[in-house]
Amino acid sequence: MTGPGSRLLVGEGVCRYFGGLKAVDEVDFHLDEGEILGLIGPNGAGKTTLFAVAAGSIPATRGAVRLGGTPVSGRAAHRSVHLGIARTHQIVRPFAHLTVLENVLVGWYYGRRRRRPPGGHGGRAAREWAMEILEFIGLADRAQQLPATLTLAGRKRLEVARALATGPRVLLLDEVVAGLNAVESHRLVALIRQIRAGGVAIIMIEHVMQAVMNVSDRVMVLDHGRKIAEGKPAEVANDPAVIEAYLGHEDDGPRHA
Amino acid sequence: MRARLVRSGPRIGWRLPAWAPARTLVLFVGALAVLYALPLVVPMGDYAHDLIGLTFMYMAAALAWNWLGGYVGQISFGHAAMFGVGGFVAARIALSTGLPFWAGWLAGGLTAGLYGLLWGHPTLRLRGPYFSIATIGVGEATRLVATYWDPFTGGSSGLSLPLGQGPTKFALYWYGLYLLAAVVALSWWLRRSRIGLGLLAIKEDVEAAADVGVNATLYQDLVLVLSATVIGVCGGFYAWYQAFIDPQDLFSFDRSIGFVLMGVVGGIGTILGPALGAIVFVVVQELLLASYAQFYLGIYGLLLVLIILFEPLGLSGLLLRLARRLGWRPAAGRAPAIAAGPASSASTTEPGPGGAT
Amino acid sequence: MSEVLALAVSAVLLAGFYAAMAYGLGLIYGVLRVVNLAHGGLIMAAAYLTWVLFTRLHIDPYLAIPVVLVVFFAAGVGLYRGLVRLLPRGAEGGVQSLLLLFGVWLILRNLAYLLFSGNDQAVRTSYSTASVRILGNSFAVTRVVVFGVAVIAMLALHLLLRHTLLGKAIRAAGQNPRSCTLVGIDVDRIYALTFGIGVALAGLAGLLASTLFAFNPSYGAGELLRSFVVIVLGGLGSVVGIAAGALVLAFAEVFSIYLVPSYLTAAVGFVLLVVVLVARPAGLFGQRVLG
Question: What are phi and psi of A89, to 5 degrees?
Answer without folding.
Answer: -105, 145
